[in-house]
Amino acid sequence: MRTFVLLAALLCGLPSLAASRCDLQAPTAQADTGAVRLTYQSIGRNSDPALLLIMGLGGQLIDWPDEVLLGLCRQGFRVIRFDNRDVGLSSWDEEVPQASLTYGVLRHRLGLSVSAPYALRDMARDTLALMERLQVPRFHVLGVSMGGMIAQHMADLAPERVQSLTLVMTSSGALGLPGPSEALLKLLARRGADSREMAIERQVELLAALGSPQVDADREQLRRQAAAAYDRAFNPEGVKRQILALLAEPSRVELLRRLRLPTLVVHGTADPLLPAMHGVHVAAHVQGSELRLIPGLAHRFQEAFKEPLLAAVLPYLRSQRRERALARL
């Protein structure tokens, strides 16, 4: 009887209990990984299966929408989000000389090698070390954009620790895939600013450009988001270093072919930064992966697409949690 009750609880998720334990105001903390210090937040019970969220280029842990966090936590996951190195309240590589982004972009366009202070694989090692510090031996991973690329490296470095991958708005990095417009690249590269107002306005322009053409941009809401991010931490040089890491990154096609773990790929049909073919290409090279294309979704979380995103991600993660629970029983 006890086993039956436990199994029923695992399968049903006990939503009333989930609501009480999913505290989005849980305090943040720092973990020293050896190479860097990462600021993180853990939401949910330590005994729950862990789900690690990895944000994209320049993103901070506060950029995950509350609805997404609650939706994931209420499925019975311990949700862990953090600031990557060089953004937010994690370590900044201030001793590294200022990065020449223009020179790096030029070499990348010419097909030449690009020098970067660190690589995405180093960022994957940061993240694995974070989970070691938290004493989480095995976990699920959900990565967005650059975070999805870091997640790919994590699964390759430690396949015994990563239980499943959910890759959203990301890429294989292969040559020949369609790229963003020149105008969007210019917005992406504009990182410095002479004042708080200029920095916020530039971020609003970038966020609007990354949104879906099917949805009118709410400039005031974007301005509030940009202001919150600026006031928490503003490090344009750090974001430049992350961009250089992206430019220096080789194709991950062979890496993807090596993966042997449950993988869901989610991509939008209106993504202006990484067009839909990037997601299709990732799914085509991960054996047994599932692909979900969301009509109209672009390259950021927008209110109109939060429900379709959760509808794509939650059933998959729920199935992974249930399979692990049944295996333990």
UniProtKB/TrEMBL annotation:
<dbReference type="InterPro" id="IPR000073">
    <property type="entry name" value="AB_hydrolase_1"/>
</dbReference>
<dbReference type="InterPro" id="IPR029058">
    <property type="entry name" value="AB_hydrolase_fold"/>
</dbReference>
<feature type="domain" description="AB hydrolase-1">
    <location>
        <begin position="49"/>
        <end position="299"/>
    </location>
</feature>
<protein>
    <submittedName>
        <fullName>Pimeloyl-ACP methyl ester carboxylesterase</fullName>
    </submittedName>
</protein>
<keyword id="KW-0732">Signal</keyword>
<dbReference type="GO" id="GO:0004806">
    <property type="term" value="F:triacylglycerol lipase activity"/>
</dbReference>
<feature type="signal peptide">
    <location>
        <begin position="1"/>
        <end position="18"/>
    </location>
</feature>
<dbReference type="Pfam" id="PF00561">
    <property type="entry name" value="Abhydrolase_1"/>
</dbReference>
<dbReference type="GO" id="GO:0046503">
    <property type="term" value="P:glycerolipid catabolic process"/>
</dbReference>
<dbReference type="InterPro" id="IPR050471">
    <property type="entry name" value="AB_hydrolase"/>
</dbReference>
